[in-house]
């Protein structure tokens, strides 16, 4: 496949873009000078630009690819392959296009290009057709048909040929003067060029007719002096008889007599109007493409054969954080593509861009990362395709998009799907009795005896493995399943208390807002004839923050039943002392954040000491959580903490095993 075809593949192969990008693409191709149509794999037109549509209107869809007079349409929805097939009956050119298009759509041909006439009444026009396949999903998805108007080029080529032929026959735009600049010879081509007839100019000074370069007067002192000074060629604006100007190229020669003395001047002239027009069109096209690349939202850069940067647009500069001055000439892989999405190194030879350069085929990567100047990773999708460099050789165009938002959406969707999966798993676990309570002992520091157990919820997976609460509780709280879990904890906790065990229960903020919760506790106490003093309900500062009034109301109601309340995670929030004043709690549980580094952090020691002194002054008990070593144990004893719990004494274990109780039968939660 040619480099030109691969560029087409780069542009057209990706999946349909978002609406804004599709509009931008349509506006871009509408602005192109070429006429463009996109076909599906059956040869039906699915998109055209304005140039194609206008050409079809202007020419009645009658050209070399359709039968004159039949009026076949070639707009969106038209069967272009069918049009070519119908026209091929009588037109060899149409038959050639039809065969090529069938081969391209069938994957048997890489592309097709030819030139053809498409003349209108009183107007000569020539076009170049190029058909390029594009690939989607690993197979040929359709083709792009591009028509370029090459009339100006054809005219220019013919003009050059005609001038050469005329010059050979001495019928060129040739002007001869004597040494004084008086016209002595004026060819028919000169008359056609300037509009002046030979009879009007011969014998008169050349300077009168606007055919002399600026600054010269056509006399011996002008033309001869310039030629003798070494100047023999000029490009200047000549003046036509009607006053209009046009660009010409002139070459001056001094005529000599047989003795070698200057006898006059001969000038051969070429009209550069067509050439200048073509140059202006090319310059306009180049300026247009440069404007498009600099204003497009996509990042774009061009590499040479060694992978060094030769061009980068403004969007790419912004996304990378480097200026083009800093990047030009640098090997882009080393700066912007040396790491993978997981942060591991990516060797240059393993890069998809490098492999594409090695094989000469275009590549599209849906998810990858580039590296910004500050070292952060930029999630991107990109395509790379070959191109011809202005300096010669084959380079590579890389077009990329920042897909950070897409990645964030995908991550949100992944989390949502994961949460919905957990909802199903939690609901199934509730239905199948696969929630269990674990118990961790609370030790009295003065006696070393276990005085209580904190009950901790766990969930069993299908295979019987234990699932930690941090895996399922956030989802249960978010989707309203936590209240049923909390009631299960209360139900089981009351049963353990009825068996003579002192237990602490954790409740969520959502359950504390349940106005019927204290009644549920009361009914369970009566049903199992439980001493309410055997139950302690832990309320965290987080729960107080979410609904302080509901938490305080529940604490008062539980106290009225005879149960106790413990303020959990005490000291971690700004409102700890505020809550201590308002919440009727009998126990303060010192958060493990202050306990974990008592041996190495004097500040933590001061905080724990202050909490203990405050609790004693208010007649409250203290429990230090997270005790894992003897040094911490000894410090807490010295600070007069009442009770401790942590891995130093025991890890949480199944409550049925700890309390030597049989597993419960089917659970029935009364209202």
Give the key terms.
671 residues; alpha+beta; Beta-Lactamase; 5-stranded antiparallel beta sheet; 25 strands; 40% helix; elongated
Q: What would your notes on this structure say?
A:
With 671 residues, the chain is an alpha+beta fold. The protein folds into four domains: 147 residues, PAS domain (Beta-Lactamase), CATH 3.30.450; 122 residues, Beta-Lactamase (2-Layer Sandwich); 107 residues, 2-Layer Sandwich (Beta-Lactamase), CATH 3.30.450.20; 224 residues, Alpha-Beta Barrel (TIM Barrel). Helices cover 40% and strands 25% of the residues. The protein has 26 helices and 25 strands. It has an eight-stranded mixed beta barrel, surrounded by four helices. Helix 4 runs antiparallel to helix 5, helix 6 runs antiparallel to helix 10 and helix 17 packs parallel to helix 19. The radius of gyration is 45 Å and the shape is elongated. The N terminus and C terminus are likely disordered.
